[in-house]
Amino acid sequence: MDLNSASSIVLQVLTQATSQDTAVLKPAEEQLKQWETQPGFYSVLLNIFTNHTLDVNVRWLAVLYFKNGIDRYWRRVAPHALSEEEKATLRAGLIANFNEPVNQIATQISVLIAKVARVDCPRQWPELIPTLVESVKVQDDLRQHRALLTFYHVTKTLASKRLAADRKLFYDLASGIYGFACSLWNHHTDTFLQQVCTGDEAAATNSLERTLLSLKASSLKDTYLYIFQGFLHAVFERLKQFLECSRSIRAENVCRDRLEKTIILFTKVLLDFLDQHPFSFTPLIQRSLEFAVSYVFTEAGEGIVFERFIVQCMNLIKMIVKNYAYKPSKNIEDSSPETLEAHKIKTEFFTYPTLMEICRRLVTHYFLLTKEELAMWEEDPEGFTVEETGGDSWKYSLRPCTEVLFIDIFHEYNQTLTPVLLEMVHSLQASTNMEDTSAILIKDAVYNAVGLAAYELFDSVDFDQWFKNQLLAELQVSHNRYKPIRRRVIWLIGQWISVKFKSDLRPVLYEAIRNLLQDQDLVVSKNNCLPVDDFEFRTDQFLPYLESMFTLLFQLLQEVTQCDTKMHVLHVLSCVIERVSMQVRPYVGCLVQYLPLLWKQSEEHNMLRCAILTTLIHLVQGLGADSKSLYPFLLPVIQLSTDVSQPPHVYLLEDGLELWLVTLENSPCLTPELLSIFQNMSALLELSSENFTNCFKIINAYIFLSSSEFLQMYAADLCQSFCEVLKDTTTDGQVQVLKVVENVLKVNPVLGPQMFQPLLPSIVRGIIDGERYPVVMSTYLGIMGRILLQNAKFFSLLLNQMACELGQELDQILGNMIEMWVDRMDNITQPERRKLSALALLSLLPSLNR
């Protein structure tokens, strides 16, 4: 491709490819796709995106095409790979200048240079790192920033390589550039701090940006463990400087956001190093704990710390406390010296005064509901109730983080902390002044702590007495200001009910819950923990409250508007239906009428639809044969949920299949509508083996409900699907298919063999060849035995067919089959199948003796 003549053509097509008119855009994209493999195309793209006079959108598109081309055609082994000559030219052009004025394009160029470096550096591109190092040293702000940005992306990419030879190369490279990267970081950090002191906001912002980039480049911790520890010690000092610096930077200052990001990056370096190299972190345990506890649990952090920093510090404490590398074995002699050393440091730090202060601060400071949360409770009660818990939320959100830290510390040091928490509980025995909001919030926080530590407090708290003497009375206090306690007490009972709660007290609890479901405050009523999903549940105790509970829960379901809230209420309703089973029938009419409307409203909310499917599953099980009245709504739901051509199937398929199966299991007969939705099955069997078990259960249910009608409609399609499945499936998959065929033969011995005839020759071959998997062989023999015993005429036709296919005498094939059958009788473990095989073989004797 001649560069001069090609540049104008490619530029024109790229310009067309940025058009919003599809008539112009599509042909341009097709043309660019054809040029991807043309020699010289990427040299033209390089000239275009480095020409700062051209339109930004055109340059942006050029750099993206270049970057994608690296992924596809840069490696030597790739089809249509770039020539070595062109690659050499491109490498030189990429690092000729670091003066890109547009930030987004500069980032893309840095990323694509890193992609090339991953393949070529340092063997084919030895000049890359030295060029970057020199460019970072220049005085020009723009060139320095762009070179530093590229330096970061290159080191990050090279550090991510995992092959041993690549690691060795990077270790060698890192040893040469690490000192430079650290000095660069220190230089930009000092510059930033000086500029902040002089009040030069614009210059400070630029320096902070460079500090952030150089910090990222310096903190590739998986490469140089020993020298990296020195860097981490420096991180603590810099952290203190930056935190003190934040005092003088107002929230509206442009530096503030980046300053906080830099502080968080400092802490992330510590957390990542601790996570990946716990023993190398041992010398830093003492300093880390002193630093984190000082800023989070003492006055030292007041006016400095911000939420994300507190979360990071708490995570640092949590990871040290819970780290299994720091926990000695029960037999001390089996523990490594490194573990014992780390454990000793932890033990010496976590003294009784330290633990007591941490526990008290967590409960009486961090567990308190904030003004913002209380305001949200009033303004958006549903939003308030959707708590961000579970998963990894503790890594990023303050409240889950504080609770997880409390749980881990209490578990680790429960003998020390149990008396501390019990003292806090005993101090709250007296009645609370309704006008004293702070006292109410303290009680809420202490009850939260007791709920989180329920398992650790099993032997220390007589929860039944506490419930009868105090908690039950607090549930009955209707004062509006006391609603945080009503909410917290019912949550607390939910935490303890599976730990320590007498069964005899449940009716009293059900009475209290029924009253709370009528509470005017949505947060209190929604956070009700109806204890139906635990081992101690007794239906007879719950039945007197079933009607009123079900009615109140249904009213709550209608009242709430957010998906998460509706899902929660539906989950409780599902549990109730599941527990009381058929006894729910008199009360579900209203729910049955409401679910179609809710399904329609939730068209854009697939997770809510999953909750509806789960509710329908329990509803069908509870209604039994009466669930037939739900079919006008139920069957279209199953149809949609199991149709792989519909996008929602990604979310709904698993629950949809279970609902389909439950519907069949409770159906008194096979209706035409039920029969019609089976057309979804062929595509499901092609999809994957994840749902095979439920699919085969559904097929079996159809067979047992009405084999003749079902097989006449779907036997051919089913047989074809089975043939495809058997070509590429596991042993377990083969057995499941064969068991369906065997069930067909059981219920329809005359038509069954004819309908699944295409499958049978492979079964005969499997028997003669001596199938090596005993379970598969046993199923083969079961199918053949059933055909031989129930449909001898078809068996004879099958043998004739096999004789023609194999070019052997019929008697020879029969003899080989009988010989292998007798030889493998021990593969058959089920008594009924052994009996079937024995009867089948005996049935041959009269014909052999004629």
Automatic annotation (TrEMBL):
Residue ranges annotated for the Importin N-terminal domain, each copy included: 28-100
Superkingdom per UniProt: Eukaryota
Record keyword Acetylation present: yes
Chloroplast in keyword set: no
SMART domains: IBN_N (SM00913)
Gene Ontology biological process terms from the UniProt entry: protein import into nucleus
Short name of any one Pfam family annotated for the protein: IBN_N
GO MF term (any one): small GTPase binding
InterPro entries recorded: ARM-like, ARM-type_fold, Importin-beta_N, TPR_IPO7/11-like
Keywords tagged on the record: Acetylation, Cytoplasm, Nucleus, Phosphoprotein, Protein transport, Repeat, Transport
Entry's localization field: Cytoplasm; Nucleus
Record's GO cellular component terms: cytosol; nuclear envelope
Subunit architecture: Interacts with UBE2E3 and RPL12.
UniProt family annotation: Belongs to the importin beta family.
Protein name listed in UniProt: Importin-11
